[in-house]
Specification:
Distance between the termini: 54 Å
Strand order of the largest sheet: 5-6-7-8
Shape: globular
Structural class: alpha+beta
Order of helices and strands: HEEEEHEEEEEEE
Strand content: 25-35%
Largest sheet: 4 strands, antiparallel
Number of strands: 11
Number of helices: 2
Length: 163
């Protein structure tokens, strides 16, 4: 140790850099679909007839995977009380040819866009100056562009990355 105590300060600085790195790595979250399955087999027509339609599961929202950095970040900064990744009033859904899913959510006034290949999740609200009032329909084109119809008569177009 030097007379002015710089060795102790450098240790504190290294610990701070390590903590910052862990917190920053928690910011790059990955997501998975949150689903529920029925407790019993639900089908039409009813058993013992062979099923033509079977209820398999419901999509409830998206779940953020908890990395070590995310846990540390929650310990330092706290957690959100509201589940912002849950669906409130979903009215329409569409799936792209690569497995991406878009859900129009009138309750959140947004479209939830999930890109499973990247484990990425976006909430699309529309342009800042003209936000969606209530998205009512979603559809993907062959190039994975997303089109959203709003209850006010607007149609919004997004590229495959959500821009």
């Amino acid at each position: 140790m030097t007379i002015d105590g710089t060795r102790g300060a450098s240790r504190l600085g290294a610990a701070g850099v390590l903590a910052f790195t862990m917190v920053a790595s928690g910011c790059a979250s990955s997501y998975t679909l949150r689903t529920t399955r029925p407790d019993i087999v639900l089908q039409w027509p009813f058993q013992p007839s062979p099923a033509k339609v079977t209820y398999v599961r419901s999509l409830n929202g998206l779940s953020r995977r908890r990395s070590t950095g995310a846990v540390l970040k929650a310990a330092v900064f706290g957690t959100e009380k509201e589940d912002r990744d849950a669906f409130v009033l979903p009215v329409a859904a569409a799936a792209g040819r690569d497995g991406r899913i878009a859900v129009a959510d009138m309750g959140r006034r947004c479209v939830h866009l999930y890109l499973p290949a990247q484990e990425r999740y976006l909430q699309l609200f529309g342009p800042d100056q003209d936000r969606m009032a209530a998205p009512v329909a979603v559809i993907f084109d062959d190039g994975l562009g997303l089109y959203v119809s709003d209850s006010t008569g607007k149609v919004l177009a997004y590229d495959p990355d959500g821009a």
